[in-house]
Fold this sequence. Notes:
The chain is an alpha+beta fold. It has helices spanning 5-13, 23-36, 57-64, 94-97, 104-109, 146-154, 167-176, 193-200, 227-235, 268-274, and strands at residues 20-21, 45-48, 73-78, 112-116, 133-136, 157-160, 180-186, 205-206, 215-218, 242-245, 248-252, 295-296, 311-314, 326-332, 345-349, 352-358, 366-368, 380-382, 388-391, 395-400.
Amino acid sequence: MANKNTNLHSANKAKNDEFYTQWSDIEREVSAYLEYNPDVFRNKTILCPCDDPEWSNFTKFFALHFVEYGIKKLISTSYAVESKTYKEGYQISLFEENDPKFDISKTRTNGKIFLLDRDDINKDGKIDIDDLKWDYMTSDGDYNSKEIKKLRDEADIIVTNPPFSQFRDFLAWIVEANKEFLIIGNVNSITYKETFALIKNNNLWLGATGNGTDMVFAVPKGTVVAEKDKEKAARLGYVGDYTRLGNSCWFTNIEHGRRHQPLPLMTMADNLKYSKHKEIKGKAAYDKYDNYDAIDVPFTDAIPADYHGNMGVPVTFLDKYCPEQFEIIALGIVGSIDFSCEKKMEILKDGKPTGKFTVNAKGTLYKKYNPKTDSKPPAFKDIETGVLYQSIYARIIIRNRGVAANGNKS
């Protein structure tokens, strides 16, 4: 993996790359795993990297439920403030300022490690966040340091909200150690070839809750937040240094059971007759791609239950993906060599000629342009025939399981 400490340094230069997950979102998601398996965390060591219990809810949450969940050990690590660019107004955490080992120079250059085990430090008869021990690390707390990797190798489960810009490398860091995990990322991370390969092979799936819906995150003071996102967060009850992200989701390899619920579907004939989507209802047939043998299904609820061939569905389909119901075939996205063609096309912008040409249509899926149903203008024009084509946003190519070539259940 190519990521070095400088990568995380760069990520932290952007003030919109650090989001603090809300307690309610963590509680809702974790409850699904406990519902499926009450012992999912029992006798396990949980590591929360990219974390700080003064600001983050992950450590607080697992500390509160430490005994209830039967956790063996809870470890969290934080990144040194000196490595971040938003040092203005930085507040010293309560863990440090009242502790004799507090050292301002180390606070700025060294990461911190927080540990909760079965040691009742304050002798109050219970184990909770008041028994959390902390110390400075020798490194700045970057997850690629030898120090953090050693903690990773000790852990059974990794739970955190890593910097979104580092998602690809962070996931590889986890997979490298073959650990269970529960992390938050941008839904578009599904289209990374490394992430998609894990999904296709059933080694990674979406979490149980909140996928593709608005999630509110606290942000460091001074972070530039779009006014519409700040207003949406406020309407959801979070006023101040908060933002909302509608494209966030949980990624995990821990079983939660909900992903095995089949999606209720209509037949192709019923979709064409009754679908609520104008792109489907009333048509003679589903659109087909010109450069790949599959039909285009632009909405998850319009997947035909009785179609036996390949279907291209939106990336958001994964929120409803049941591995017993569907087989994932491929990822249809710009740049994929599986979806190229030999036609010479003129590239159009807003439906108008650009004088620029391509032979493989940028390696994207495309279909014939239909001015009656396509909301966007055509993207390509075949220079030999004049036929207009519409490029298709990222699609996951799937096939119904148990549907024979005659369309009947096998």
